[in-house]
Design goal:
Blueprint: H1 9-16, E1 41-46, E2 51-55, E3 61-62, H2 67-79, H3 81-87, H4 101-105, H5 117-124, H6 132-147, H7 156-163, H8 167-178, H9 186-197, E4 200-201, H10 203-214, E5 218-219, E6 224-225, H11 229-242, H12 248-254, E7 259-261, E8 266-271, E9 275-280, H13 291-304
Antiparallel strand pairs: 1-2, 1-9, 3-4, 5-6, 7-8, 8-9
The structure holds glutamine.
Glutamine binds near residues 169 and 263.
């Protein structure tokens, strides 16, 4: 019952709330600019059917890059590790998530890992299904299973807002198509990717997903092995090495918990065998991570001795 002892969670939240003034809401996807920069919320699930939460836990936000971990798990289950890693590498980049530079300078020119946009786009192109409709239905079904919430949907408004402005992501796709990393229609892939990024959750959904990863793919409530343990392990390793973009090294030192962030302000985190954590704080630092969310993770990890190192 580790997380039930966290009765100072509201105090920790109050402590980090001023940090929301230090960041900025993402606006390069215009619809994300509507978020309230001062929101901050957290939920923590443990394996004994308990969760605790504080702050703006009911606000819906889009997964954005957090969806990359989920589609990676699905692609590994659909295609197997050999195929996936023949197209995408396993190394951190040290570059911003949307950078194109390593695609050109690395040889062979496959994306360095599945957590940067290029790698995630390549992974999304591997999701099994006839048409986008079936592929998106499979992704949504998987997220609903992980979060144990059949009501989860994607926001068509956010998806379209990104689709209309995602010229850099399009260029990553064309570059990869030229080099045989992806095939098929780029606009179709962009349509699927923007929908996947626009899946809406709240902190509680995210914490529940985190718990499944914390338990190596096993849902302790339904007793279902949703993700094979080896796949969950691969996903968590990427969360440690590249989950917080090019701030992953510092996060490993300060926090030491596998985590994945998204530009809508979400952070998904998992403490092995113990708890899943979902955070929402849309004010971001210059690397795209929630400023207050990072601070909250640091305080929690220190207090609970949750670092894996
Ligand atoms: N949909 C966003 C993009 O591709 C996701 C980026 C992110 O959350 N870092 O730009």
């Amino acid at each position: 019952m580790q997380c039930m002892e966290l009765n100072n969670l509201p105090d920790l939240l109050e402590q980090v709330k001023p940090c929301t003034n230090e960041g900025k809401v993402a606006t390069y996807i215009p619809a994300l600019g509507e978020a309230n920069a001062n929101d901050i919320g957290i939920a923590i699930y443990d394996k004994e059917h308990h969760y605790i939460s504080a702050g703006n836990t009911e606000v819906n936000f889009t997964l954005q890059s957090i969806s990359k971990v989920i589609t990676l798990a699905l692609a590994l289950m659909d295609r197997g590790t050999d195929y996936v890693f023949s197209k995408v590498g396993m190394e951190p980049t040290g570059d911003p998530f949307n950078s194109i530079i390593k695609l050109e300078t690395s040889n062979p020119s496959k994306p360095l890992n599945p957590m940067i946009n290029a790698g995630a786009l390549a992974v999304t192109s591997m999701i099994a299904g006839e048409e986008n409709e079936e592929k998106m239905a499979r992704i949504l079904h998987f997220v609903r299973d992980l979060a144990a919430n059949p009501k989860i949907q994607y926001s068509a408004e956010v998806a379209i807002s990104e689709l209309e402005t995602a010229h850099l992501n399009r260029s990553l796709c064309y570059y990869m198509k030229q080099n045989g990393i992806i095939d098929g229609d780029v606009e179709e892939l962009m349509d699927l990717y923007t929908k996947q990024c626009s899946i809406q959750v709240n902190c509680i959904d995210l914490a529940r997903i985190g718990l499944v990863f914390a338990m190596d793919g096993f849902d302790p409530y339904t007793k279902e092995q949703i993700i094979p343990p080896n796949v969950a392990k691969i996903c968590k390793t990427f969360m440690v090495t590249c989950g917080m973009y090019n701030a992953s090294g510092e996060f490993a030192i300060r926090v030491g918990i596998p985590a994945k962030s998204g530009v809508a302000g979400g952070i998904l985190a998992c403490v092995k065998g113990q708890v899943g954590i979902g955070i929402y704080g849309p004010a971001l630092d210059n690397k795209g991570n929630s400023v207050a969310g990072l601070k909250l993770m640091e305080l929690l990890s220190m207090q609970e001795n949750w670092s894996m190192f």
